[in-house]
Design goal:
This protein has about 260 residues and is an alpha+beta fold. The chain has eleven helices and six strands. Strand 5 and strand 6 form a beta hairpin.
């Protein structure tokens, strides 16, 4: 693990301030992520740990790759800090079995819920892609506040990079909101409602959005969104199923460009 440098410490503090402001806007209690729970490691060691992406969260601990690109680091940090701040439910199970004539006890600890992402008894997750979409939308708001009010100065090129989403899922969610709500105030209201669900671990807003979509277009989109995983391919499939053909094609083009 690397010692955090001055830029990293400043961005961590700025992200905490922005997170607290968002929670205050939602009238929710503050959630803090101790600086000691944020671990910076080299890209080489990150790969050796078989971690996915550029940042990851395990049981409240954040692991990030060091980057000389401050906007890239803040994109990773803001996203993972929201994973930690969102509702988390841990399941602890005790098992007993007979081995060689003796009772053998074991304890298994696993996540039951992380934000909107839910782990039912079946082997597949629920709302994984939607969870990533809501987290990245909220993370983009944190980054916007930090670029405007934080202690780190970003030039125009860096600020533009801060607006880039890590996944296509936020664009998909914004397309859904844009299809059923007519103005920016309504869209803002429902974004905040989804953020509240993220922190409280509820699904009130997405169920209501699903009901509004069904009245407008005749189909319930909640089952489809619940099955969307975190892959770009899954986002493209859901976009096409919802008739968002332009977005689906854009995602597929990006997938193809990445592979080539």
């Amino acid at each position: 693990e690397l010692e955090k440098n001055e830029d990293e410490l400043t961005l961590i503090n700025d992200t905490h301030v922005a997170l607290h402001d968002l929670l205050s806007e939602l009238d929710l209690p503050k959630v803090s992520v101790p600086e000691s729970h944020i671990h910076i490691i080299t890209p080489e060691n990150y790969k050796k740990c078989s971690f996915r992406g550029r940042g990851i969260t395990y049981f409240g601990q954040i692991y990030l790759q060091r980057s000389s690109d401050r906007s890239r680091f803040l994109r990773d940090l803001s996203h993972e800090m929201l994973h930690v701040a969102s509702m988390r439910v841990t399941l602890v199970s005790h098992n007993k079995e007979l081995k060689n004539g003796k009772d053998f006890h074991s304890v298994r600890i696993g996540e039951r819920q992380s934000g909107l992402e839910f782990y039912p008894k079946e082997k597949y997750k629920r709302f994984e892609g939607l969870n990533e979409a809501v987290i990245e939308l909220a993370a983009a708001e944190l980054r916007q506040q930090i670029s405007q009010k934080g202690k780190t100065h970003f030039d125009k090129w860096e600020k533009d990079k801060l607006t880039v989403f890590a996944y296509p899922h936020p664009n998909l969610l914004m397309e859904v909101l844009g299809r059923i709500f007519s103005n920016s105030e309504e869209i803002r209201h429902w974004k905040l409602s989804l953020y509240r669900d993220l922190f409280e671990g509820t699904y009130r807003s997405i169920k209501q959005i699903g009901q509004i979509w069904k009245k407008r277009f005749g189909e319930n989109i909640v089952p489809l969104l619940s099955q969307m995983d975190g892959s770009d391919e899954s986002a493209a499939h859901v976009a096409a199923a919802l008739g968002l053909n332009e977005l689906a094609q854009m995602i597929r083009t990006q997938i193809q460009e990445t592979r080539t």
